[in-house]
């Protein structure tokens, strides 16, 4: 069960990237399935060739971001529909990822990774590693919340809310979309790099269906914990990713097979979309949110309500 929580926290970085495009930009980005593997491939091949694993993971962030830029350029400058632009980039990345790795699978056994210190000290699979990974997610959430409160972040949120209005103010919505896609896929590539180092290999098929995991994390988390404020919405994505992994683990423990994971993911998303319409679930979710408010310190300033 602890391993499921660890995986949920690592995938939460990817889900935060999906949150930026799906909720903030209102952009249907399918690049994720390819950029996740790209991040894993870049980090793995860099580590195998002797590059410091931390630098290799940063490489994965930037190369993932580059994939997002390509999708953004196809959509904004090439006037290609956003959904199709993402699909085209995702398909192209499959061949690029094979080129990067030179084969379908790159093992990392015996290599030093960013998780080696935890593995050597037998911290993986313990609550210590969960605490460290959760702290990492909190840092990512804090950076995203800070960014979305800057002038550039506010322009990006406005682009997702009402593109025509923000364009009338002289803001380049094309640049906002390209930047948002770059940040989103950078986070996805970063998550892919960590997952590869966590499981000990990068595989050409590891990104298939990742967009569904990201959407499930966003929808499930925000259905339970709400999305009224930016920081709540971002934290809900992290908790949603953990909840998703726990549900998957429970399903596997109940006798379902690994091959059923995609089916479980699809059912989970459907349930998350339907549940908020049920009055009983609405009361349950409101109780959680009220309890969350009750523990807030006095004097906390309310944030501007977002489109998230």
TrEMBL record:
Q: Is the keyword Cell membrane assigned to this protein?
A: yes
Q: Where are the transmembrane segments?
A: 7-25, 54-75, 82-102, 122-148, 178-198, 204-225, 232-251, 263-281
From which organism does this entry originate?
Answer: Paeniglutamicibacter psychrophenolicus
Q: What Pfam families does the annotation carry? A: BPD_transp_2
Kindly provide the name given to this protein in its UniProt entry.
Answer: ABC transport system permease protein
Query: In what way does this protein cross or attach to the membrane?
Result: Multi-pass membrane protein
Localization: Cell membrane
* Entry keywords, A to Z: Cell membrane, Membrane, Transmembrane, Transmembrane helix
């Amino acid at each position: 069960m602890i391993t499921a929580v660890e995986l949920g926290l690592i995938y939460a970085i990817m889900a935060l990237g999906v949150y930026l495009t799906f909720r903030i930009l209102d952009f249907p980005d399918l690049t994720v399935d390819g950029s996740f593997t790209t991040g894993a491939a870049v980090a793995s091949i860099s580590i195998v060739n002797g590059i410091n694993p931390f630098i290799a993971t940063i490489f994965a962030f930037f190369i993932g971001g580059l994939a997002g830029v390509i999708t953004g350029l196809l959509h904004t400058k090439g006037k290609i529909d956003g959904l199709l632009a993402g699909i085209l980039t995702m398909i192209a990345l499959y061949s690029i990822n094979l080129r990067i790795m030179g084969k379908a699978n790159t093992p990392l056994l015996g290599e030093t990774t960013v998780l080696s210190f935890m593995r050597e000290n037998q911290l993986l699979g313990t609550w210590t590693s969960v605490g460290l990974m959760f702290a990492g997610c909190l840092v990512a959430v804090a950076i995203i919340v800070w960014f979305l409160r800057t002038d550039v972040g506010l322009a990006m949120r406005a682009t997702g809310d009402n593109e025509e209005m923000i364009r009338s103010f002289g803001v380049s919505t094309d640049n906002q979309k390209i930047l948002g896609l770059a940040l989103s896929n950078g986070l996805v590539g970063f998550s892919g790099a960590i997952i590869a180092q966590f499981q000990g290999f990068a595989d050409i098929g590891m990104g298939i269906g990742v967009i569904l995991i990201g959407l499930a994390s966003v929808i499930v988390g925000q259905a339970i914990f709400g999305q009224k404020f930016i920081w709540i919405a971002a934290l809900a994505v992290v908790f949603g990713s953990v909840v998703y992994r726990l549900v998957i683990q429970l399903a596997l423990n109940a006798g379902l097979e690994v091959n059923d994971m995609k089916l479980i993911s699809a059912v989970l998303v459907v349930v998350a979309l339907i549940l908020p319409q049920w009055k009983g679930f609405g009361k349950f979710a409101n109780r959680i949110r009220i309890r969350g408010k009750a523990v807030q310190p006095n004097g906390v300033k309310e944030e501007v309500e977002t489109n998230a």
